[in-house]
Design brief:
Layout: H1 3-20, H2 25-45, E1 50-54, E2 58-61, H3 66-69, H4 73-92, E3 96-98, H5 107-110, H6 120-127, E4 132-142, E5 145-154, E6 160-165, E7 169-170, H7 176-188
Parallel strand pairs: 1-3, 1-4, 2-4
Antiparallel strand pairs: 4-5, 5-6, 5-7
Helix pairs in contact: 1-2, 4-7
């Protein structure tokens, strides 16, 4: 039975009980239960937000200029922008509560190499009090082509919970945030894709 049917049946039962007994103390209890029962069903069906540690997006640069140009200050600014927008999106969703990662001093976090540490981000997230870790990756194949990906791990055991990546997208680094937000909305936050 769905939520509406359970409420309906509970009220119907209690109102029937009210009609069958004389209007003494038992009827008062039945009225109180009729009021409180739907509220208890509603709170039981709303899960607590998941505490998630969203680490800064990282850049994997496969472009021809990667060895020569490297990561520029503009790239760093765009990575910060995409990270901030992803955090805001997940926080606004109501499904997640953000855990502050600003104080983390672990080497893979400082070196921005969580994507290659074999799941070590889960341990870092657990130490911060998070239930899950989130690592976002921008994979640049040229100065005008990129892909966006992210992975979420269970902080307790490091198990990979969710992983997604886009196909190759056209755009310079100022479009990374749009690619990431679209991917998160259409996969992680779209309830239909999680079923």
């Amino acid at each position: 039975m769905g939520r509406v049917n359970i409420r309906h049946e509970a009220r119907r039962y209690l109102l029937g009980a009210l009609r069958c007994c004389d209007r003494g103390p038992l009827s008062a209890v039945a009225v109180v239960l009729a009021i409180l029962l739907p509220a208890s069903f509603a709170s039981a069906e709303t899960p607590e937000p998941i505490k998630i540690a969203i680490f800064d997006f990282e850049l994997e640069d496969y472009s021809a200029g990667a060895g020569v140009i490297g990561e520029t200050s503009d790239d760093a600014a765009q990575l910060k922008r995409v990270t901030n927008e992803a955090r805001q999106l997940l926080a606004r969703s109501g499904k997640y509560t953000l855990v502050d990662v600003g104080s983390v001093d672990a080497e893979p976090v400082r070196a921005r190499s969580l994507r290659t540490c074999g799941g070590c981000e889960a341990d870092v997230a657990l130490k911060l009090g998070a239930d899950q870790s989130f690592v976002g990756i921008i994979a640049r194949s040229s100065r005008t082509e990129y892909a966006v990906g992210f992975q979420i791990r269970d902080a307790r055991d490091g198990a990979l919970i969710f992983k997604q990546q886009t196909e190759l997208r056209m755009g310079t680094n100022d479009s990374w945030n749009r690619g990431a937000i679209r991917l998160i909305k259409n996969t992680l936050l779209d309830d239909q894709s999680r079923k």
